[in-house]
């Protein structure tokens, strides 16, 4: 360690950067390090002081980290919720489903190497069928072409590669790359998980990742800051998951849009580092840009246990920059007394429908939701820590001691190879298997729809409970009749043992094998293992220093991968007579726009993946999914089929949508597919942040109604002209001319959030096209 807050990472490298430390045994694979691309605590401190002096006020923690990474802290215009910031993130992380398109775009850029440390994580393409070993083996066979592409592209362009079986991207980041004060972007909406380690980790689309990997300043609208003050302390059945379940119920799925959620207060110290990560992870479900906790002793302990004591020591020296200033102001403050917080369960069909566990049985009966719990699923990126697994195992052990097993099917998803190996060594896995559990691969699995479910028929009404983060219709198993509820691993385990939503573990009794009535004692588990973590198998591939001989092949006949062709530039004219492709009714998430599950196999092939465009969206004309009228033929067809027909006939089109359009996953395919199939405009009441940015990146026009009631003026067979594009500029609304079938018209005002750079993306046809123009 050297003075001024820097670490020596090899000859001449005097910047703070976290290596890919596999485990506490100091087996380290150093991440690729480029001069000038990472930020030291000294530089962070310098930038914070510049901005604090300019703004003349105390700063929140999130402001310190974000503004501390400004490309130009002296000249940057800073106004919460208004200006766009140009930032220099420290690193990029990509999961395998989104990395395919991100790397294809990077290849198209023509650049020889990434400019910042970057990694690819293979976690999305492993389908849960039988069990971890068998499923991983099958995934390697089925996805060999894709894994080979990602491994060789990573080697060629300087990107680290975490092989299938290594674990879920967010757990790997927490164990290896996150640290207090880092700014990291990841091509997955749950990247904010790293906020549990005092990091600003933000989910983005692949095109944003390409910008950062290309060394271009990354743009982010200056976030508002929502403060959540925690008092009291967690105890008993209440877990960190209950904090975010409660917050989701308060803020709803769009209440955090455009804001960073910053937790603070005396209650913070009662939460483990991995528990804080759980809270930040699910912050994506309220639309938040990210979430963050202040640096404390729980983070220090975690850093020490994961082989990063040098980082912890340095963070201690610079703690003042890693906590909020006294007297800082938040745009909105929520206060939660952890001592009074009760266990929660949210759902079905949306993660913000919050219920105390004590009430869910009665609510389910009243609403006709199935009471029988068919499957309990624990793990995922949200809740797969050593502490989570230990607390779940403590409940399973109580049931086993009374001669009971789970009445529901029960699955366990370890978050990483390190977690899998450690809970296997320490006996948790055996207990969970003995109670009826199946330990799945270290991967996303059922959480993202990678689940070959066999116990119910498609369309059969049923209930599952998970410790996941998201529970949109059809998300986990493609069955729209599945009622999915999200809760803590402890409550999932208890409900799987009881087999019913009507069980409240705090008050209700179970019947032992001998007929004795008993109550489950509150769960308990160590925050971290007493011994060092067991790293398990080595699953990391470091990029070679010399990669000139590395070949990256994409077969022209592949059904999984497809090289990209640039989108067409704007022709300089207004967009006339766009056909309404579909007027969407109600909630339309990125799962509705570009489904996951079996479609994940096509994430590297734009034309094939486009066959799922909007097949889950509800058509307001007939309340049906994937059934719209082709206005050229008069016949009904699937949304992608009609879009392709319009494109083939030179007819551009527009999608009309409702509030918070595009909430959920960061998947940029939900923006690429409409652009590829001839769409030009997405017109809605409001957007989710990531999706709106993704649309801009691909040369689309994401527009909102100045008057939300104008949504009602548009009919499914209308045409829409967008005028004023010759003078398209930031802050200047556009005009929409709605042309009805009866010859009448409505003139409506359309708002946008484009800045000057983003207008240039539109003119060039995409952000990638603009990048090439500037080379």
Automatic annotation (TrEMBL):
Its cellular-component GO annotations read: cytosol; mitochondrion
Specify the Aconitase A/isopropylmalate dehydratase small subunit swivel domain's residue ranges: 579-707
Reaction(s) catalyzed by this protein? citrate = D-threo-isocitrate
Q: What is its main location?
A: mitochondrion
> Where is the Aconitase/3-isopropylmalate dehydratase large subunit alpha/beta/alpha domain positioned along the sequence?
63-499
Identify the Pfam families for this entry: Aconitase, Aconitase_C
Tell me if Protein biosynthesis is a UniProt keyword of this record: no
Q: In which pathway does it act?
A: Carbohydrate metabolism; tricarboxylic acid cycle; isocitrate from oxaloacetate: step 2/2
Cellular location(s): Mitochondrion
Task: Report the cofactor remark.
Answer: Binds 1 [4Fe-4S] cluster per subunit.
Which key words are in the record?
Answer: 4Fe-4S, Iron, Iron-sulfur, Lyase, Metal-binding, Mitochondrion, Transit peptide, Tricarboxylic acid cycle
Among Gene3D superfamilies, the record links this protein to: Aconitase, Domain 2, Aconitase, domain 3, Aconitase, domain 4
Q: Which SUPFAM superfamilies match?
A: Aconitase iron-sulfur domain, LeuD/IlvD-like
Show the GO MF annotations: 4 iron, 4 sulfur cluster binding; aconitate hydratase activity; metal ion binding
| Required cofactor names | [4Fe-4S] cluster
Entries under InterPro entries matching the protein: Acnase/IPM_dHydase_lsu_aba_1/3, Acoase/IPM_deHydtase_lsu_aba, Aconitase/3IPM_dehydase_swvl, Aconitase/IPM_isomerase, Aconitase_4Fe-4S_BS, Aconitase_4Fe-4S_dom, Aconitase_dom2, Aconitase_mito-like
Q: Which GO terms describe its biological process?
A: tricarboxylic acid cycle
Group of enzyme by EC: lyase
**EC number of this enzyme:** 4.2.1.3
Kindly list any coiled-coil regions of this protein. none
- Tell me the superkingdom of the source: Eukaryota
What family is this protein classified in? Belongs to the aconitase/IPM isomerase family.
What the entry lists under NCBIfam families is as follows: aconitase_mito (TIGR01340), PRK07229.1 (NF005558)
Q: What biological function has been recorded for the protein in this entry?
A: Catalyzes the isomerization of citrate to isocitrate via cis-aconitate.
Q: What protein am I looking at?
A: Aconitate hydratase, mitochondrial
> Which organism is this protein's natural source?
Oncorhynchus tshawytscha (Chinook salmon)
